[in-house]
Amino acid sequence: MSSVLVPLATGCEELEAVTVIDLLRRAGIDVVTASLDGEPVRASRGVTLVADTHLDEALRRDFDMVVLPGGAEGARRLGEDDRVTELLRKLADSERFTAAICAGPKVLAGAGLLEGRQATAFPGALDDVPGVELRGGEPVVVDASVVTSRGPGTAMDFALRLIELLAGEAQAAEVEQQLQRPSGHRQYNGEA
């Protein structure tokens, strides 16, 4: 079973965090949420999220993927945390997945993971980052082991694409069918 770490920081975008956590768990993927300081996390819209563990505890494990939720303040806090940067680089060096949505791709850029890659993010989040080929109109962009997405409105497409990468297309389709999304809505893989 694949394992995913979702670090949560004060100011994170709750819709993005919860959508990713929920859908990946529906797919049978082992998802661990970790707060930076071990305390409940007050998200960008005032929702309090209680993480499974403290980041220091989570870092004792190996993960197949790290997913960074967005939210400007949450992404800033993740980007300022040396433990997060070190983990992202470690996963990238071992060709495991790093994924981020909304303002989260700026954290990937700060760790040096977007240089020469295609990516998307919340409009303006990567405008001042050199060396990134922005694919702003796409809901989800996969470039090798780096996955990026635009924002709250693309969170479901993002999560389904992550499931496909970790557990296969059939598992992603099964989870999507259970969600009762309108037929033909799949955009996470570029289809209309």
UniProtKB/TrEMBL annotation:
Any one Pfam family match given in the protein's UniProt record, by short name: DJ-1_PfpI
GO cellular component: cytoplasm
InterPro entries: Class_I_gatase-like, DJ-1, DJ-1/PfpI, Prot/Nucl_acid_deglycase
Annotated protein name in UniProt: DJ-1 family protein
Keyword Disulfide bond: no
Domain DJ-1/PfpI: 3-164
Highest taxon of source: Bacteria
Organism whose genome encodes this protein: Alkalilimnicola ehrlichii (strain ATCC BAA-1101 / DSM 17681 / MLHE-1)
Alphabetical UniProt keywords: Repeat
Keyword RNA-binding listed: no
